[in-house]
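ugh ok so i messed up the first submission bc i forgot one of the chains. this is the corrected input, ALL of the components this time, i swear. 863 residues overall. if the numbers dont match what u have on ur side tell me asap before i send this to the collaborators (the ones from the other lab, u know who)
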Amino acid sequence: MAGSHAASAASGAGLEVHIQAAPAHGPAEPATIDGDKSLTEVTRDVFMPLESGPTTLWKVAFATSLSALMLGFVAIGYQMATGIGTWGLNRTVGWAFDITNFVFWVGIGHAGTLISAVLLLFRQKWRTSINRSAEAMTLFAVACAGIFPLIHMGRPWLAFWVFPYPNTRGSLWVNFRSPLLWDVFAISTYFTISAVFWYVGLIPDLATVRDRANGLRKRIFEFLALGWNGSARTWSRYEVACTLLAALATPLVVSVHSVVSTDFATAVIPGWHATLFPPYFVIGAVFSGFSMVLTLMIIARKVMRFEQYITPRHIGAMCKVVVFTGSIVSLAYLTEVFNAWYSANPDEQFVFLNRALGPFAWAYWTMVACNVVSPQLLWFKKVRSSLPAVFVLSLVINVGMWFERFVIIVTSLSRDYLPSSWSGYTPTLVEIATLIGSFGLFFTLFLLFCRFVPMIAASEVKGVLVRREADRRLP
Amino acid sequence: MTPAHHESAGHPYVLEPRVARVLGFTAATGAVAFVVGAIIVPERAWAGLLVGFHYTLGVALAGGVFLALLACSGSRWAAALRRVPEAMSAAIPVAAIPAIVLLFGLQMLFPWARPHGPDDPHAHVIAAKHAYLNPLFLCIRTIVVLVVLTWGARMLRNAAPGAARVRWGAAFMAMFGVLYSIVSVDWLQSLEPWWSSTAFAIITLAGLVLSGLAAAIVLAVHLRRRGAWRGVLHADHVHDLAKLLFGFSLFWSYVQYCQFMLIWYTNIPEETVWYAARMRGMWWSTGLVSFALNGVIPFVVLLFRRARRDESTVLRVAGIVLVGRLADLSFHVGPPLLGPSPWPSPWEVLPVVGLVALLALVVLRAISRGPSVHADEPGLEQSLHYHQ
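and heres the new structure output, hopefully the right one now
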């Protein structure tokens, strides 16, 4: 049963429907996965975790994440009941931890769709081992991001007011000129398309779960698989849908963080208003998103025993993306600093002196050390092929990218044009607990995903295998 | 699979003497026009030379960028097409000719290089930038940039396939990112030294890659039609090149829009001054033409798969983009130098045309001096039989 399904899934060959058109010349491309697996083995390896009980390691990880999430729930409940006066904000620093966390999480959410859409369009086959979990990560990260503006509204139960719909509130209407409203549109569109893309990609694998299951489980997955039958026509439509969604999602990857950057860049605050911000934020988001994918994949391949699917070659390829985007981020930092001097504008110049030498200099230099200095190690193959080193670096970059947003937001606000209103900022325990809670939410969702959904896009991995097989057989 | 198969790929490209003569004659005409123009209408001649400098430097450097991208990404689909970016990158020294001449015209071009009295409203801004914007430092920077990039591109072209090529590819990308940012500040942004924008370098970079890609497409189709690439370049290659052109066209529009929207939105006088100068007279229509040629037309036409696979259509769009690059550069260079409504004259057009002809001559000659396809290029077989 399992074997026959594997064959039927492979006959459509994932996203590579043109197998028969590909003649082979020269050496075949290197395999994307290790172990010279047959299609049946792929099915068994990918779907086994869903069909057996959780491992102890998983239980420990889940308990930890859930505890963090519970802490977050308590903190959020407290804020709702008391008000956002529980935050460390003051009349000068009106945005700090909340928006930092928001931008951080939205940024994390960039890698998933980049991997699934942009790398699909670039025909990077190695993406098949990681795209499913990276896309899931995107959805969870965007969910985490959503928490912060929602709380900051003060009355989150009226959150639906952000949507422009006919209402009886008279002149109370959304402000289309505000980048905050653009955020609502950009992020909700991004979330929707990413979710649809992710789900459409899942369907063939959900059908495999269905075919391997019995009883209630079978009924549930029958519903979720949307009547997938593995016929050539179904596959063909699936291909078309995936390509169309990839093409739709690609501009969204760019638009979301561009819009997020306008939250700052449209304000006439030194250090915020920079024309470079949209592309700079996008590339920073890809940088941080890929680092988070690295963190998760290095853990997941161990915990879920996917070492042969997420190989050091995958990690190496991701490292190259990280060092490439990290270098662009560094160039953007350099451009900003140079331009502050070159602008001959004393306010702009002050911002950068204040960042480097002011009360938040520690945060600035943390950012530089994490985002500019540490990724340079990835130029070396020796570092790229050492999993512990890559894991540590991915964490360091995540920290650095969080600090990047903190530096931009807090240093500019705390000391703006009027020295009489200068002020400091310290996060309260409630804010820190909320941040921890968002990490709890992220990892809880991710661990649940690992248990209940095939974490590796088996149908796509098989597609690549089948194509290689076809390449090998042709003269 | 057999070596014999390799050798049959591509035919030698012969640069017809007639074409070479026409290109050489055009280049000479451009040079003469510049000399005459520099005497009778200097601001136009120098503006033309500056545009020509950016045009040739852009296309030549784009060759290096493509080589670096192909090396770093390890892509094989374009292995057979490698000679075109190679020849483009070998033409970086062509841009050194206008660059060296331009060093003698700094006073003509840049307000900061001219003596200015204390009643000049921008005197204090220019004084504040003196440490960077001064003729000596500019000369040093320009020479260093050209020498380093010429050397980097040369090392990249000659690097053995494999690790060495990847290393030089990465090194070239890093050098290019920093050094081209400097060029765009020095030779475009500082035409109006009172104005600056952090997105400026990436905007010029987007224009460079877009026009370079268009030039590569034109060259590729030319090689196929002249017989050198018969059986080498086929619809799947054209399709991929067209997709890249589509993508970079969108990227160009995106970064242009980012700068424009943010400056328009915040409406700070120090920043709007740049667009204000370009919303007067004929420059606004030049900007719109540039947007149409670089952004709208490639987007609308190449949205369709059938158009992307059709060589003639892709060639036409690439040609439009190459004209669009002229509009884009004029939009950047013209307003501070030529006033609000200068009708085009031969004095600024001919130097540009002459330099483009010289560039074409050098690139075509470089291709004609070697095989049109490297027989021992790794991945050549996959590239020749490439299917999407």
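quick check: The radius of gyration of chain A is 24 Å. that seems consistent at least. Confidence is low (pLDDT under 50) at residues 1-27 of chain A.
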